[in-house]
Amino acid sequence: MTQISRRPVLGLLAGLALAPRAALAQQPLRIEITEGVIEPVPFAIPDFVPENAAGGEYAASIARVIANNLSSTGLLREIPTSAHIGRIGSFDSPVQFSDWRAISARALITGAVRVNGQQITVKFRLFDVVSGQQLGDGLQLDGSTQAWRRMAHRVSDQVYMRLTGESGYFDSRVVFIAESGPANNRRKQVAIMDQDGENVQYLTDGTALAFAPRFSPTGDRILFTSYETGFPRIYLMDVASRSRQMIGDQPGTMTFAPRFSPDGLSVVYSLSVDGRTDLYMLNVASGQRWQLTQTEAIDTAPSFSPDGQRLVFESDRSGNSQLYTMSLQGGTAYRVSQGQGRYSTPVWSPRGDMIAFTKQHNGRFHIGVMRTDGSNERLLTASYLDEGPTWSPNGRVIMFTREEPGSNASLMSVDITGRNLRRIPTPGPASDPSWSPLLP
Amino acid sequence: MQLLTKAILVVAALALAACNNPRGGDYDEPTGGMGGIGSSALGDPSDPTSIAYFNQTIGDTVNFTVDSSELSPQAMTILRTQAAWLARYPDYQILIEGHADERGTREYNVALGARRAARVEQFLIQEGVSAARLRTVSYGKERPIEVCAEQRCWDLNRRAVTVVSR
């Protein structure tokens, strides 16, 4: 799966690119993600050009995956292929920009596919239709045919980066809980899928209740809590081999809410004994364990800052659930949530500048974000039950669980601007998403 | 009040019947590790030494108010009766299940259920039940006995269930 090589064929492709039109002194097409109101930029992506017969099988599918990714951002809007006037007959032929201007496309993505045995080669170019300029160089990706979706995601990430100036998030996966069965006896399996809901695989068989999986910083291992022994215990699983081990268990206690440290070497988690719930840290290799908090209260749902120096967690030490940060060197925990209501499930953003959280207030649940000192709180959603935010690898999108009365749990995503609320397609009811980093 | 208590007992008994019959219900798979203890025959509810008698006549469930693990006077009455029965029948092992309603986040609710189960365990120990016979588990909001988006269901779901087995 990881044998995609990213090989810019600079001499070949860039050299053949259309010469920029110096006469058009226009700014190149650029999407500002942070702007308050954005009219989605119209783009066209014709089917990729099959460069041999076997490539024909993927020519349309790859373009569809890319189109779906880009449309899902809410930043771009696809002009359906049925409206296209122009045709891309060959990847290297000059583009007739007038054909694309005529349908009001502002961006055009062209590509080609060649398949030899199990090997697939995908090439693409991105054009600013208005100025008639190519944005960046042509790019060629080589890999196995099994990884064709990943190549489409890679192309999507490139397009996103060239248009927004920020890294993308399409070549990533999500671990979550696949739910089935009656609500009072729910079957909950750990599952994994691509970020767009494709390629769902089940990692546990559902015989034991499991919840709240979390990715390792490199995306190759996951942590989750399972009742396999009859009691909540933490499991560490290698995603590729599915091999797993119970970690951090201590007889007579319950252990749950595990999260990796940014270096992947340690796990911070909650341990309940005699009704108290404290945070502990475990070195996975050595098994050495430290107690991080010691109160009569509930301390749970920890999350590391990206530099690994601090933790944010929820605690009801003040009487109800609020968010606190503390240094891993020990010392005081500082309360950061200041608004009304109860705060839980804090998650530090990948950029380190924000904390996403669940807020419960006046009978409603919200997903929100705040600065790490608690200032600038903004609520992004409201429903009967929203919980458990997880950040996209680039920190621009948040995925979470939504439950409405009388309907099943589902995965939703929302931009941190509060716009672009979407349901993530899953085969059945789903909860507890955790977003991987960009795949290596 | 009397009626409500009765209703709770019946519901709890049904719930426990489900616990002790992991292969029952709508699907073939065993349920999610319910109980941590193997299944036991419930016996005849008219037999005062039976699990069915404990569940239905003694009462296996106590309820809690929102976000609280405090025992109400009614809850203490039920737990004292449980303790007396458990003293009489020392062969039974005891698992206290703590549960929360759905109006909270998942992991917090596991911790809250653990706090409720611990509160019941502590009370039973005070009432003379040997700590060696007791274990606790929390299911958080994962195993409601009543499913609805209303107060009446949340009230019943905030509970600790004393599960006896031998």
Describe the overall structure.
The complex is a heterodimer of chains A (440) and B (166). Chain A has 440 residues and is mainly beta. Chain A folds into 2 domains: 5-20 and 40-164, 3-Layer(aba) Sandwich (Rossmann fold), CATH 3.40.50; 173-435, TolB, C-terminal domain (Neuraminidase, 6 Propeller), CATH 2.120.10.30. In chain A, 10% of the residues lie in helices and 41% in strands. In chain A, strands 1, 2, 3, 4, 5, 6, 7 and 8 form an 8-stranded mixed beta sheet that branches. A 4-stranded antiparallel beta sheet of chain A has the order 11-10-9-32, with no helix packed on it. In chain A, a hairpin with a 5-residue loop joins strand 12 (210-215) and strand 13. The N and C termini of chain A lie close together (10 Å). Chain B has one domain (2-165): OmpA-like domain (60s Ribosomal Protein L30, Chain: A), CATH 3.30.1330. In chain B, strand 2 (93-99), helix 4 (106-126) and strand 3 form a beta-alpha-beta unit. The longest helix of chain B has 21 residues, at 106-126. In chain B, helix 1 packs antiparallel against helix 2 and helix 3 packs across helix 4 (106-126). In chain B, 43% of the residues lie in helices and 14% in strands. The radius of gyration of chain B is 15 Å and the shape is globular. By secondary structure, chain B is of the alpha+beta class. Mean pLDDT of chain B is 83; it is low at 1-37. In chain B, strands 1-4-2-3 form a 4-stranded mixed beta sheet, with helices on both faces. Chain B has helices at 2-19, 51-59, 73-88, 106-126, 151-157, and strands at 61-63, 93-99, 134-140, 159-165. The interface between A and B is large, with 54 and 45 residues.
